[in-house]
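re: that complex we talked abt at group meeting.

here r the seqs, copy pasted straight from the sheet so there may be weird spacing, ignore it
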Amino acid sequence: MPSQPAPRADKRAHLVDTALRLFATGGYHAVGIDRVLAEAGVAKKTLYAHFPSKNALIAEVLRERDRRFCASLAAFVDRRSAPLERLAAVFAWHRQWFAEPGFAGCMFLNVAAEFHGEVAELQRLAREHKKAVESYLVGLLEPLTGIDAAPALAADFNLLLDGAIGVALVSGDAEAAERAWNMARRLLPAAS
Amino acid sequence: MPSQPAPRADKRAHLVDTALRLFATGGYHAVGIDRVLAEAGVAKKTLYAHFPSKNALIAEVLRERDRRFCASLAAFVDRRSAPLERLAAVFAWHRQWFAEPGFAGCMFLNVAAEFHGEVAELQRLAREHKKAVESYLVGLLEPLTGIDAAPALAADFNLLLDGAIGVALVSGDAEAAERAWNMARRLLPAAS
DNA sequence: CCGATAGTAGACAAATCTGTCTACTTTACT
DNA sequence: AGTAAAGTAGACAGATTTGTCTACTATCGG
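got the structure back, here u go
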């Protein structure tokens, strides 16, 4: 079998990894292609061999960010077994995230803020990510609230998480995650 | 009396007004100085006679946005007299805002997302705006919850509003404001 | 009426941005 | 070993960015 016809695909991953880090902490417009290339140690031609444009790179960065976000969150949650603790872990995970040194908000909220509407693909990726988080919350809520009440509460909790992100971004206060969790607990039907 | 030594100060206001509109719907990096000047019908030299840099213009835009935001919200709230209705009006005002055609999120959250940390002045203005909103919420909550419980609930409600802004921005759903208000009601100590 | 002030129009500088292209080098599979 | 794919370095084009500067014009107070 011909195995891989494109064996140099690790450069692409490194490029996306570097771009992810720089865009996350520096913003999409403020960080230029040349900066990403210099930091990654990759030639400009290689970038445009893998992606047709900067926006296409940003789109791939968002897809990668979504993968890492979901994987990291799920791993953190799966260290707990009790349903209420698993739900609490979502907020605790956010709290850790906010306290990271280079925290600069949610890449999906930020992309919506910077490109809002102009680039439909990026807007779509942002919407899909938030939808994925909400669906994940539904699964965590079902054991606690039953299958009927879970979707509405998941939307509520999703809003709480976005609110915590906004507060943490502007005020720099990682405790926003705890504030959101305290509100979430009070909104649960009949738990401690 | 010498009345006004600088009678041509209305150009400045027009400049800020145009910049406010364009930055709000187009983003800070994406909208260039030339675009603002063309739209305002003002010469470049006039801009730099009033402001030392683009960032200084952005700072003034944020100050103006804070003034208008607070004035518009207060006027909307003051049409009600019952404390609970006045509080509900805050969320209803946000709902109207989200449904406006060019809605593109909160200019203060967005400035934090685009410049996060680099430009200390802009970050400070964002933080102060959110603090002002929270203080306003304290005043609305005191008649409902007493003077002791109000500050903590105001911080909670502020987080709810930021969450609604985030959800509305990404999903385009103005109903996020109602969702936030329904959560807020459930968090009030002893109201309907 | 006249001079100072504030404005316009727009050229210009210097940097920076995305994206293309040429020439050379490394890598890997057969 | 040799060939084809993939990467590097970097010049280059063309547009766009912020900010400065020159020359001209309108307006207003005294």
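couple things i noticed - Chain A has one domain: 10-187. Residues 120-171 of chain A form the longest helix (52 residues).
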